[in-house]
Amino acid sequence: QGQEKMNCNPKKENGTHVVLCELGNPMKAGAQITVDMELSVSGLEDMGDAITFQLQLRSKNSPSPVNVSVTVPVEAQAEMELRGNSLPATTVLPMSWHRVEGSRQLDDHGIRVEHVYQLHNKGPSTVSGVTLHLAVPSRLGGHILFYLLELGTEGGMSCTNPPNLNANQV
């Protein structure tokens, strides 16, 4: 009926973290209680999608304890932010400019524009196994809009090159 705080003591037994809580002494026969526990557990990023707690209920009046397994879903949350810019920020082609077919000189194909993207984890959890799909329009109205020359990454990331990357070997 009333709410009481339990007295709990954490300890370590055989490499396992144990929390021992005293619920009441003595308890009346047939008493039913509900216990709400809030546990703070760190380092769950690599635990999968659930964590299981083993509970053991013991009474001094009963020779055998009752074992209960409680599985709690784990959901890591992280907010990702994608930032990008182009160098130069603005590109204007002259009206009379035409690309030179078959040339292997970069200047004959257009003005070099470098797009830089940064993927940031704003937390609170760490992330792994992130996949970023970036679609770059290469054609517009049947004409080449962007000629994809090269892709590069930093910071331990890997990149899958699109099939039309530097198709003319410029």
From TrEMBL:
Domain of life of the source: Eukaryota
Membrane topology listed for this record: Single-pass type I membrane protein
GO molecular function: integrin binding
GO biological process, one term: angiogenesis
Compartments (UniProt record): Membrane
Claim: Membrane is one of the keywords in the record: yes
Organism: Cuculus canorus (Common cuckoo)
Taxon lineage: Eukaryota, Metazoa, Chordata, Craniata, Vertebrata
Keywords: Glycoprotein, Integrin, Membrane
Residue stretches making up the Integrin alpha third immunoglobulin-like domain: 81-168
Pfam family, one: Integrin_A_Ig_3
Transmembrane segments: none
Integrin alpha second immunoglobulin-like domain sequence ranges: 3-72
Database matches in SUPFAM superfamilies: Integrin domains (SSF69179)
PANTHER family documented for this protein: INTEGRIN ALPHA (PTHR23220), INTEGRIN ALPHA-IIB (PTHR23220:SF73)
Protein name (Swiss-Prot/TrEMBL): Integrin alpha-IIb
Keyword Membrane: yes
GO CC term, one of those recorded: external side of plasma membrane
